[in-house]
Structure formats: structure tokens, C-alpha cells
Amino acid sequence: MNLRKVAEDLIRFRTETGNTTEINHCLEYVENLLGVKANKIVYRNGDLAPVILLSNCQDLDFDALVVGHLDVVPANDEMFECRREGNRVFGRGTLDMKSFAAVGLNSLEYVIENKLPLNFGVLLSTDEEKGSFGLDAFLKEYPQIKSKIVLDVDVAGDVTKIIAKCKNPVFVKIIAYGVEAHGSTPWNGVDANEKMLQVLNNIRKIYPYFSKESAKPTDTWIDTVHFAKIEGGEVANVISNYCEALLDFRLTEKSTVQELEKKLHSCLVDGTEYKIVTSSHPVVMDENNSYIVEYKGLAERVLNKKVEFEYIGGATDSRAFAEKGSVLIMHSGSGDGMHASGEYVEWNTVEQLAQIQKLFLQQLAKK
Questions:
Q1: pTM exceeds 0.85, yes or no
Q2: C-alpha span between 123 and 141 (Å, rounded)
Q3: Cβ(231)–Cβ(245) below 8 Å
Q4: What distance in Å separates the CA atoms of residue 101 and residue 112, rounded to the nearest whole number?
Q5: CA atoms in the 13 A half-sphere facing the CB of 312
Q6: Domains of the chain in sequence order
Q7: pLDDT tens for residues 15-52?
Q8: CA of 20: how far to CAs of 24, 188, 202, in Å?
């Protein structure tokens, strides 16, 4: 397989989440990439985003499984044509994460061509950027799917880092109710926006505000929240009778959703309430796990440099497999500009990741 060509082909598909036509074209490309060599399941369920699973076996009990996604966040037309500058490849999805999806497909071809005695697969969703609802449905449809090891390649940023911990993303909606009145007579109404400001201010007393303009905390493995969306009021001269805000909490493994709910309740004022929109679980891997240690050693050999463990606040689709007892090895290549106009991947790290995966699968096949 020409790894670079496959990566660049994938990037050319405008698979912005929800772009059904382009996503279907991309899935057709992936489905045909290995021809009849690979077993394929393309899961479709109504309006949910499809999921594709390619493997070298009929069984759904895997020794190793690559997990990732093919959808991307929106971008202008130019970003769907790869641009090369030296070792850097620019374009939407170069870093998040079509280059690394290509690595997984490359590894599957390697396992098939070399007849490695492994049950190996590549699982790719197409709505990860907006909640992975298609993948959730797929996993409910196929509850028997499991894997001893999951190679999570959706943690891009630095090839010298293996992710050992991911926080629990908890999305919360705050709702404030008021009473309409003319803007010139606020004493005749109750401003829902003011109530919201009080609640958000109370939350900030517990969870401080951090930004690029403020001092970075010494310890970043802490619970955080950002106010993702605030909406209240219709026109300038009417007191708002309704306001809602969407908050994005990131909780470490030391915190629980139940504890968060107690804190939220203490922050409410009359006429306000909260709802947990979504919550999950933190992912915590044992850094001394034999598979992780072995993978880390192979990565250091390929990179010829030390590889360290890192903790991140981002979510990962592979957490569903962590809950099933899989060993997650969260590792991908280097780059920058994720979700931005200057997104790029360091191409040599894509090739290095492909080499590391092959070596690891070779070793795993010997066990």
C-alpha cells in the first residue's frame, strides 16, 4: 500500500460531519481499498452516521483493533487538497486524523499479506467530531465486539508521547427562567440572563478560568470547565424570559459525575436548573502494563529517542473498549493546527507510526 497516496486520497474527501454524500464516497473508497482480502461490515442505521469495520477475520473477538474516525470539522475548499512543505503535509484531516486512519489500513494489509496469526481489525466512525452517535449504535448492535488491545490513533500531537490518561468529558446544560418585560422597566420583569450570570459566576468560584492570557496552572491534571455556548434574549428592548448555556466539563479520574452534580446544585439560584447532557468515564491505563511497555520500547527503537507518558483532557472513542477491559495504547504522529486553518502533520512521524504498528503486531503474533 502506498501510505502517502491513501492518506492524501482520504483527505480529498470532504467528510465534514453530516456531509452524507462525501462520507459515503469515502467509505466506498475504504471498502474497496483492500478488495476481497478484508472482511467488511458497513453499519448504517437510519439517519445516524455510518461506521465501517474492516478485518482479517469473521470473528468479532480481536487480538488488536485500530480505532479512529473519518469525519472532519469544516474547512474551506483549499484545505481538502493536500499541500506539502518539506516534511509537513497541510490539509483538513492531516492530523485529525485521516493520516493515522491510513496507517491502520496499512497495518491491516500488512497483517493479511503476511498471514500473521492475529484477529486484527480497523474500526472507523464518521461522526466523532459531533458525538460518535453512530459508533454508539454500532457497539449496541454488536455487543460481542471486543479486543485484547486497542490501538487508538486519534490522539495526535506528538509522536514521542503515549497517552496514559484521558479525562471524562461531561456536557451540562444550565437553564434560567425569567419574566418578560419592556427593557425600559426592568422592575416589571425577571431577567433570565442575569440569573444565568449569577450561576456561571458561582461555578467560576469552584472551577477557575484559564486562558492563553492567564497563567497556566502548575498541575494541569485538574477538573476544568469552559462555557461553550450562552444564549438568552430575542431583542434588545425585551427582558429575557429564558436563557441557556452549554458547559463542557473535563473531570479527572479523581472526580465523579455525582460530585459534580452536588457542586452544580450548590451554584444554582431561584429559577435555574441544570441537566447532564452527556457523560462518560475517564480512561486510565497502567503504564506498567506489559503490552504498553513493549509498545513503548518498540516506539523508542524506531524513533531513536525516549517516549514519555502524557495525560490529556480530550475524549476518545476507544473509551468504550476500555470499559470492556481492553488495553488501550493511545499513540499517533506529530503535527499542529488541529481544527484550525493551518492543520498539518509531520509526514515522517506517520511513516514511523506505521513502522511501530507493524513491529508491535509482529511481536503480538508470536505470543
A1: yes
A2: 14
A3: yes
A4: 17
A5: 17
A6: 3-166+282-365 (3.40.630.10), 168-278 (3.30.70.360)
A7: 999 999 999 999 999 999 998 899 999 999 999 999 99
A8: 6, 49, 42
